[in-house]
Amino acid sequence: KAKELGRNRSWMYQPELSRNMHSRMSLEKDLRDALVQNDFRLVYQPQFRQNESNPLRVETLLRWPHPLRGLISPHEFIPLAETSGLIMELGLWVLRSACEQFLAWRDQGLTLEKIAVNVSAIQINGSFAESVAKILDDLNFNPQWLELEVTESLMMSGITEVTQQIHLLRNMGVEFSIDDFGTGYSSLSKIKSMPVSVLKIDQSFVRDISDESSDYEIARAIIMMAKSLGLSVVAEGVENQIQEDTLHRLGCDWLQGYFYGNPLSGEEFLTKYNTNQ
Ligand code: C2E
Ligand code: MG
Ligand code: MG
Ligand code: MG
Asked: Which segments constitute the EAL domain (predicted)?
């Protein structure tokens, strides 16, 4: 039925389509300008261990305050940055800036174990490891402070180049986590051979994690599997006490979400979490 409707009315979508194309192109230009004008911002969201009030890990999240349209979600502009190729430059800017922030915090007395940075699949080409190494080297940044978040589908893709780059970085001491875990199609046995140390349970499973839901069973299975493979687990999207209690009970190592803290600018993060002042 839907198909029929779609076919009969397809002409109606024409103007819509070209309008979208137009706005897509102008947004792509804006994206390019923003990169040149240094308009992008980073925010940081803490991750907490059970019963600890100081965060030890943090995830870096990219923000684009568009001059006319206001804040645009990364869900909207990252895909555009990917298809336009801008993600290469943008991704390296994010990485360098996040590492610089981590070092600035350290200088000011805020010591964290690790900073995580999201990496798009497109970024991992033949020179990725080298580009990362250059940044770490430039900044004199300990590779063990860095964790790169990649998606499940990328990690499982089996693309030789990707695996090679990941192994190169792993050998330098950079760690990898699988973001939004549980939404892809990984075979559990395959995880074992992947060079990752952290699984991030997707927030869709955390949302309805009350005791007898199927999401509870999925989260439980992920945590149990991770434990038996010696991996850590981060739950993302924790918004309330019930979710926290449940995840504690299941033995989840790290918790992240609005319940503990929204993503904050570097200065806000320092003010809120620096206990040495
Ligand atoms: P993600 O890496 O899975 O990040 C988690 C998202 O959940 C973030 O959205 C975060 O702000 C949001 N979040 C945190 N706590 C809660 C909570 O308690 N409840 C709910 N409902 N949401 C929560 P954000 O910042 O809009 O980013 C969306 C996605 O965009 C990210 O998902 C990531 O895939 C991508 N992204 C963000 N920054 C970058 C980047 O620098 N590079 C790349 N390649 N992708 C990025
Ligand atoms: Mg992430
Ligand atoms: Mg995620
Ligand atoms: Mg997500």
From this structure: 24-277
Q: Model-level pTM? A: 0.92
Residue 211 exposed, middle or buried by CB count within 10 Å (0-12, 13-18, 19+): exposed
Q: How confident is the model over 117-133, as pLDDT tens digits?
A: 999 999 999 999 999 99
Cα angle 82, 84, 87 (rounded to 5 degrees) comes to 45
Using most ligand atoms within 8 A of CB, pick from 61, 78, 95, 198 the residue to mutate for ligand 1. Answer: 61
Find residue 180's DSSP bridge partners: none
Minimum CA distance residue for ligand 1 atom 17 = 237
Reported ipTM exceeds the 0.85 cut: yes
What spacing in Å lies between the alpha carbon of 219 and ligand 4's midpoint?
15
What is the tens place of the pLDDT at every residue in 177-208? Answer: 999 998 887 766 778 888 899 999 999 999 99
Helices first, then strands: H and E counts in the chain: 12, 9
Residue pair 150/128 in contact (Cβ under 8 Å)? The answer is no
Beta bridge partners of 65: 71
